[in-house]
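User: quick one, sequence for these tokens?
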């Protein structure tokens, strides 16, 4: 009986190492959909003619495509860490203060670090969750507003939170997640009496990732 128990324990102790997800370099693509807010405050005049005074905000949406490249390393059978860079091209649609829609292309370049935890592990597949931090730089096109000079710097960076679910089947990975910036207000234009700013509130993403395991 003792020998049987020892044998069972030995087999079980080896199983996690057989099933554990491997460290890998990875590449991928993603689609992201987000919500943006446009805010205007102050008093705006055009050629001495009063146009607007007060504070107002409007909600809009964004959609984009992106690519990512990174490395993940598993320290235990179920716990790992990954670091990766990503680049996204997006377009947002927001109503301005006069009820017109404004279409604004913008780019997002980010650096990310996530903790990975697998709650389900089989011989060729696994499922888990991830959580981490990112730093993302946002750069908006000058077409977002025609009120201010085109040489205004319309870019800025923000830290943010990464959260999501992931599934791996052999070398292919599917992920569904969210990015939540902590504070990413970008001033699109500003005078002594008037300011227009925009920020991305959050984005939902779907990713496909391919692992090059070693």
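Assistant:
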């Amino acid at each position: 009986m003792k020998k049987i128990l020892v044998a069972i324990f030995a087999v079980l102790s080896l199983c996690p190492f057989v099933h554990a997800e491997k460290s890998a370099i990875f590449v991928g693509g993603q689609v992201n959909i987000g919500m943006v807010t446009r805010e205007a405050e102050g008093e705006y005049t055009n050629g001495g003619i009063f146009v607007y005074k007060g504070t107002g905000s409007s909600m809009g949406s964004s959609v984009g495509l992106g690519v990512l490249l990174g490395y993940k390393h598993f320290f235990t059978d179920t716990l790992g860490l990954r670091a990766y860079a990503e680049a996204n091209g997006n377009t947002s649609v927001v109503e301005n203060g006069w009820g017109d829609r404004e279409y604004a292309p913008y780019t997002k370049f980010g650096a990310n670090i996530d903790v990975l935890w697998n709650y389900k592990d089989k011989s060729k597949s696994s499922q888990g969750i991830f959580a981490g931090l990112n730093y993302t730089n946002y750069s908006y096109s000058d077409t977002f507003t025609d009120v201010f000079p085109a040489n205004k710097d319309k870019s800025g960076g923000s830290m943010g939170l990464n959260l999501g679910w992931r599934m791996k089947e052999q070398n292919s990975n599917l992920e569904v997640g969210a990015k939540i910036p902590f504070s990413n207000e970008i001033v699109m234009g500003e005078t002594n009496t008037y300011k227009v700013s925009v920020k991305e509130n959050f984005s939902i993403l779907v990713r496909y990732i391919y692992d090059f395991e070693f």
